[in-house]
């Protein structure tokens, strides 16, 4: 049965190609959507770029026929139609008729009253709720959505085997395990079953006959191997829990072995702290230097969209958004024992020197489009606030010798048009799962090391 999908403006601004995502069905764009798109077309932002792209797509489709009657979208029979009717369709009397959202809903209601199977597609939660009030079926745009947060790939697993097998694995650093010797535990049925693994997945291997006997390893795609960097202390930092051991392992690997690292986890699990520590170690302590610069980017909605209107240079504009980075650098340079104001001032000067000498560079995520980075240690912090398109854009930027680290917490999203299933961090994690070039770790709430209060808040709030 042919369905009629009415697209809200925010869907087109999020994904201009969404027009082609509905197969053999009819895509309806209300005329008021073009007025909303017109408001953004002059912006030097991703939203402005998407607005212009939508206009170009529809202008090209216009050559195929009359948009008011409908033009073909694809070989499957899909149709695009601009809707200008339904002006007399009744809405609740207190609803503002001049509001664009209400005009879109009026068209949906008019089509539904004409016995057409109508579905509103909107990324706005309130818009979908208002559709329910009018008895209109409504959906979120799901093309870029991945699995729910509970089902997303974590990059780690707990497996079980005999103590004898673990003993053999501990014989030397070159020993390895056959994956068929390991099992996973079914908490529902309380039984063990054969384990299946993802390439580069980290493993906590526990004994089935001795609770205190365990080992750590990684599945390289064929066998279980030892961790190479477990006993290292990059820039004087030591891992405090298993999650940080796994995180240190993938960060310490070279850009040739692990060019992409994705680390997810709640606040206080030292994601940014560890990424900075290993980056500084690779730049300052290693000779020859593994990386020319440390580049730190962070997607912030106000920063990405309004940075051009803020006073000062680019670094001055984005400075307030990167104070957390300076806090971590101060801790790395000083430790936790300093009390003298003179010592504190010296450390602050050292941190500032890292920026003045461009050892550490900070840039807006919006300005990474079109770049080609060679031998950079690139930290992309708070990537849960980036769109899938932004995530794809930065992951496709690196040249040879560049290592990209994506950090964030999918449970703490500030972007009003993203959620735990549609943000750039989760999208990159799910799409790159199983790649030999991508290593992932999800840190757990009980691995928070910031403070007892931070750990308690992360688990309860």
What do you see in this structure?
It is a single chain. This protein is an alpha/beta fold. The protein folds into 3 domains: 4-139, Rossmann fold, CATH 3.40.50; 145-226, no CATH class; 241-460, P-loop containing nucleotide triphosphate hydrolases (Rossmann fold, 3-Layer(aba) Sandwich), CATH 3.40.50. It is 33% helix and 18% strand. It contains 15 helices and 18 strands. A 6-stranded mixed beta sheet has the order 3-4-2-1-5-6. Strands 15-14-16-17-13-18 form a 6-stranded parallel beta sheet, sandwiched between helices. Strand 8 and strand 9 (191-194) form a beta hairpin. Helix 2 packs across helix 3, helix 7 packs parallel to helix 8 (271-285) and helix 13 crosses helix 14 (424-431). The longest helix is centred in the first third of the chain and has 16 residues, at 46-61. The chain is globular, with a radius of gyration of 26 Å.
State the CATH architecture of the largest domain. 3-Layer(aba) Sandwich
Number of strands: 18
Tally of domains: 3
| CATH fold annotation of the largest domain | Rossmann fold
Strand order of the largest sheet: 3-4-2-1-5-6
Major sheet characteristics:
6 strands, mixed
Assign the structural class, choosing from mainly alpha, mainly beta, alpha/beta, alpha+beta, or little secondary structure. alpha/beta
Tell me, rounded to a whole number, the average pLDDT: 89
By CATH, the superfamily of the largest domain comes out as P-loop containing nucleotide triphosphate hydrolases
């Amino acid at each position: 049965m042919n369905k009629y999908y009415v697209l809200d403006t925010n869907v087109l601004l999020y994904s201009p190609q969404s027009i082609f995502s509905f197969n053999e069905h009819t895509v309806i764009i209300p005329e008021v959507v073009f007025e909303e798109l017109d408001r953004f077309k002059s912006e030097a932002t991703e939203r402005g770029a998407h607005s212009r792209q939508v206009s170009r797509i529809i202008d090209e489709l216009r050559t195929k026929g009359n948009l008011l009657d409908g033009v073909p979208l694809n070989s499957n029979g899909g149709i695009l139609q601009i809707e200008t009717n339904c002006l007399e369709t009744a809405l609740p009397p207190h609803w503002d008729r001049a509001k664009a959202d209400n005009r879109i809903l009026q068209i949906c209601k008019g089509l539904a009253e004409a016995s057409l199977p109508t579905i509103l597609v909107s990324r706005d939660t309130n818009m979908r709720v208002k559709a329910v009030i009018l008895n209109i079926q409504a959906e979120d745009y799901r093309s870029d959505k991945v699995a729910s947060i509970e089902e997303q790939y974590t990059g780690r697993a707990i497996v079980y085997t005999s103590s004898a097998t673990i003993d053999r694995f501990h014989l030397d650093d070159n020993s390895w395990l056959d994956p068929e010797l390991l099992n996973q535990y079914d908490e529902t049925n309380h039984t063990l079953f054969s384990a299946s693994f993802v390439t580069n997945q980290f493993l906590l291997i526990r004994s089935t006959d001795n609770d205190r006997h365990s080992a750590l390893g990684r599945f390289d795609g064929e066998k279980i191997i030892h961790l190479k960097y477990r006993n290292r202390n990059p820039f004087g930092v030591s891992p405090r829990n298993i999650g940080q051991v796994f995180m240190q392992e993938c960060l310490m690997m070279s850009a040739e072995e692990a060019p992409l690292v994705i680390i997810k986890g709640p606040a206080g699990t030292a994601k940014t702290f560890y990424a900075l520590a290993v980056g500084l170690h690779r730049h300052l302590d290693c000779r020859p230097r593994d990386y020319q610069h440390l580049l730190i980017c962070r997607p912030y909605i106000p920063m990405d969209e309004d940075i051009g209107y803020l006073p000062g240079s680019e670094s001055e504009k984005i400075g307030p958004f990167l104070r957390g980075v300076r806090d971590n650098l101060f801790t790395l340079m000083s430790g936790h024992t300093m009390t003298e104001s003179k010592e504190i001032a010296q450390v602050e000067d050292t941190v500032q020197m890292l920026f003045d000498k461009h050892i550490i560079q900070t840039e807006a995520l919006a300005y990474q489009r079109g770049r080609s980075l060679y031998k950079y240690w690139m930290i992309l912090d708070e990537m849960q606030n980036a769109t899938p398109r932004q995530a794809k854009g930065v992951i496709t930027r690196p040249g040879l010798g560049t290592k990209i680290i994506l950090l964030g917490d999918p449970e703490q999203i500030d972007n009003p048009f993203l959620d735990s299933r549609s943000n750039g961090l989760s999208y990159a994690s799910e799409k790159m799962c199983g790649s030999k070039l991508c290593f992932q770790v999800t840190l757990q709430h009980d691995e928070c090391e910031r403070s007892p209060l931070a750990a308690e808040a992360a688990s309860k709030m």
